[in-house]
Amino acid sequence: MNILFTHSYFSKLDPKQFQAQTPYAPLATLYAASYLRQNNYEVNVFDVQFCDSGQDILDTIKKIKPAIFIVYDDGFNYLSKMCLTNMREATFEMQKIAKKQGCTIIVSSSDATDNYEEYLIKGADFIIAGEGEHTLLELVNKLKNKDTDFENVSGLIYKNNHLVCKTPKRQVLKELDELPHPAWDLIDLNPYKKTWLNKHSYFSINFVTTRGCPYKCNWCAKPIYGNRYNIHSPEYVVNLIEDLQSKTNFKHIWFADDIFGLKPGWLKRFADLVEERKLKFNYKIQSRADLLLEEDNIAHLARSGCNEVWMGAESGSQKILDAMDKGITVEQIYTATHLLKKHGIKPALFLQFGYLGETIGDIKLTIQMVNDVMPEEIGISVSYPLPGTVFYERVKQELTGKKNWSDSDDLDLMFENTYSKEFYKQLHRYVHKIYRGNQSLKTFKKLFSFKEQNNKSMKRLFGFPFYFASAYIEKRKLKQLEPEVAKSL
């Protein structure tokens, strides 16, 4: 059977990310395609990353004439996990085209799992709920053999006589090393490489070493892997890196794991292997403050090439962290940031404003934390309720209209909270400006105190007057929205 894979992330439909020019290939899609190919199916991948719309797939479907059309999203990429409506509409457009060409349509994504009825109405024949490779293979085998008994295929949602049927949940794969390497050869990596080199002067590529996250932050949706956490061996990961680097000569890796290197001893073994094979690359990861308190582990990260760690700090208020069930302390954020800097690793912080019960006092504590620890970078969002979370259940009655963001820069507060959604959008701009100003001023002071002599960018060195002036303007706008609140910032 001829099978065509695609995914739903069109970077041109996400203005913020398109401007950033940091595209990453659809890794989960390539794993699934590789797995079917290993099981003797003829597979192709149509990569929509650089396409304009769902219509772009028409010529490929007409040419290949696939019996099965699979939209398999990259569940490792947070942009796919955000369930953006721009991507949903593009997927529906592709489903419509594939259906007209007589394809059986299978969809595997966080959004389809949460909104399966809508996807089925729009032409999907099957939704894969949860981890997809094994479910997909069993389903395709049945379709090949014209076997319509789908009840014993775990992890499926489909219609039978106009009734929605759900089969039992599939258990996640524990032995990840059983999976073949992703089918990188089925897509063209040259546009990715060209984009990275033109914008950033290096080529970054994405890998994962794990699946899932065992922590239970109550706003975090986990429709694919749940709370299970399974991990590739260091040997598998290093083999994967070595193989692809020999073909593409990338210099940087984004490890897209929710939590990197949680298993005891894994970081040391990974660093040892990287050194033994004389591999040269830098990489960034995502982690938690409470996992970055042991200097030995941070030393192993630095030794293996880690130069940037993104922490889910979320808030400088312990009250808010506890309300989120985050399981970390503000003190741990300070300590972890200090230790990372000590070992030459750049700390970066994810921040979240707008959680239930947040006051201006909590906001000020977050801003103070950022100014105290001065991370290399920050990423600001507002609380975003996704189905399957405790947080969603608390606010779902208020989600009477808009329920998903259109793109990753939407940042719309979709429920009633202490302050208005316009206030939080303006707060996002203000915090960025005041952070950039303080960052620039500290860099300037370090340079001219001769404690740090290097080739920092002119913008970083001399940008603080501009950023502080911009922050003043943004604060005036905040005062127009919430006069008494903004006054105390």
Q: How much is the radius of gyration in Å?
A: 23 Å
Please, how many domains? Answer: 3
Please mark out the parts with pLDDT under 50 across 5 or more consecutive residues, or reply none: none
Q: Can you summarize the main beta sheet?
A: 7 strands, mixed
CATH topology call of the largest domain: TIM Barrel
CATH architectural category of the largest domain = Alpha-Beta Barrel
Percent strand:
5-15%
The side-by-side strand order for the widest beta sheet comes to: 2-1-3-4-5-6-7
What is the CATH top level name of the largest domain?
Alpha Beta
* CATH homologous group name of the largest domain: Aldolase class I
Q: Report helical residue fraction.
A: 40-55%
Q: What's the helix count? A: 20
Average residue pLDDT = 94
Instruction: Tell me the number of strands.
Output: 15
Shape: globular
Give the N-to-C terminal Cα separation. 62 Å
The class by helix and strand makeup works out as alpha/beta
